[in-house]
Amino acid sequence: MKKIALLLLLFVTFKVSAQEFHFIPKIGLNFANMTNTDGSMKPGLNIGVAGEVMLTSNFAIEPGFFYSMQGTKDKESGMSMKIKNDYLNIPVLLKGYVYEGFNLFAGPQLGFKVSSKMKVSQSGTSVSTSEGSDLFKSVDFAIVLGAGYQSPMGLMFSLNYNIGLTNAIDNEKFSALPGVGQIDEKCRNGVLQFNIGWRF
């Protein structure tokens, strides 16, 4: 809570000192995966709000809060598995307007896992559980790279990729599962996002 309160205070400080301040509610589609899992892109949603702080006419800082549905899915030999990890992501982006409303942005993102669920299906039988939540780490760190367009009326579009930098799984706990064996690979989150929003 203290971290969130501090970020809200920074929003207010930026609003006072910057030339312009805008709230931007956003919603979008995720295509998420995890490295070294042999999985494929799992679709999901992300929703949240950002605050655009215009430092100059072409340069801005954009912190935000987003609920993001991530994970991966895998299907082979008649069995399918889906990992659903939901995060509260807090990006802080540097944004540059390169031509009219077209912009490029990049920056770090801190994520906090808020829920985790695994679903396994085989021969028509499906089992879903959240008991394995502690197999996944509670904090994630990523770098966000993307581009977007801001229309004069307020409508915006953006496309970005979140590159996970930290291991999302607890290797020791996964290795202790029956029949798994020693795991040394790091499984990092990767998320392609397409968002729409409105700048107020």
Structural commentary:
By secondary structure, this protein is mainly β. The protein has a single domain (2-198), classed as Porin (Beta Barrel), CATH 2.40.160. Helices cover 10% and strands 62% of the residues. The chain is built from two helices and nine strands; from the N terminus they run H-E-E-E-E-E-E-E-E-H-E. The protein has helices at 2-17, 171-175, and strands spanning 20-34, 42-54, 59-76, 79-99, 102-122, 125-129, 139-150, 155-164, 189-198. An eight-stranded antiparallel beta barrel has the order 1-2-3-4-5-7-8-9. Strand 5 (102-122) and strand 6 form a beta hairpin. The two termini are 26 Å apart. 28% of the residues are buried. The model has no long low-confidence stretch (mean pLDDT 86).
Features:
mainly beta; Porin; 8-stranded antiparallel β-barrel; 2 helices
The CATH topology label is Porin
Number of strands: 9
Arithmetic mean of pLDDT: 86
- Assign the CATH class: Mainly Beta
What Rg is obtained from the alpha carbons, in whole angstroms? 19 Å
Quick take:
With 200 residues, the protein is mainly beta.
How are the elements arranged and paired?
Elements lengths: L1 H16 L2 E15 L7 E13 L4 E18 L2 E21 L2 E21 L2 E5 L9 E12 L4 E10 L6 H5 L13 E10 L2
Antiparallel strand pairs: 1-2, 1-9, 2-3, 3-4, 4-5, 5-6, 5-7, 7-8, 8-9
